[in-house]
Write a structure and sequence with these properties.
By secondary structure, the chain is mainly alpha-helical. Helix content is 84%, strand content 0%. It has helices at 2-9, 12-33, 37-47, 50-59, 63-100, 111-133, 140-190, 193-196.
Length: 198
């Protein structure tokens, strides 16, 4: 249910983009964002082997090692983000032009913001796994419901007002809210490790 709620919150801005501006504009966003699925797949592939390791460290109440693994992973995400932005600056126009033709050129400026959204989605998914392994399942309902509320409110305001840019705003606002709640849940639980020692 929690996974469904999280995924639903990431669908709402697209639904409203199509509703307000039609299939053509929706298609433009989908085309520009499609290549960024690689970011999410890469993050999932990198994080999956860490889940059993983190679970073991959590069960053994090894706070330092647990934190160390998480920090290394997110440092890797940060480094990958910087590299991705640099490559996007030089290659986005060329690569999207090859994929979709000259008609996509006026919209290639969306790629870097959409790339950041993909990074946020990857971080959100990784934190979802962490919350699951530390058994913060019920608290995750707040993440899903807050995400849906945020996505709806930002869709009927930002998406309606700014079209493609508004969709970026709706995604960013929703994901940042979800990430903030999950970080709070994780930090709260980690502080209780090692016999409540900080």
């Amino acid at each position: 249910i929690v996974a469904f709620l999280n995924n639903l919150s990431l669908t709402i801005p697209k639904i409203y983009l199509e509703r307000y501006y039609g299939e053509t504009v929706f298609g433009i966003y989908s085309s520009v964002s499609s290549p960024t699925i690689v970011v999410q797949l890469a993050a999932t592939t990198l994080f999956a082997p860490l889940v059993p390791v983190l679970t073991r460290q959590y069960q053994e109440k090894n706070k330092k090692e647990f934190q160390k693994i998480l920090l290394k992973f997110f440092a890797l995400i940060l480094a990958g983000t910087v590299l991705g932005v640099i490559l996007s600056v030089f290659l986005a126009d060329f690569a999207l032009g090859i994929l979709y033709g000259a008609e996509i050129k006026p919209y290639t400026g969306l790629f870097i913001p959409v790339f950041f959204i993909a990074v946020l989605i990857a971080v959100n998914a990784s934190l979802f796994s962490v919350c699951t392994l530390i058994r913060e399942i019920r608290s995750q309902y707040a993440v899903g419901l807050a995400g849906i509320a945020s996505a709806f409110l930002l869709s009927v305001t930002a998406v309606k007002t700014w079209s493609l840019d508004g969709t970026i705003v709706a995604f960013a606002g929703t994901l940042i809210l979800q990430i903030a709640i999950q970080l709070f849940l994780i930090v709260r639980k980690v502080r209780k490790m090692n016999g409540n020692r900080k």
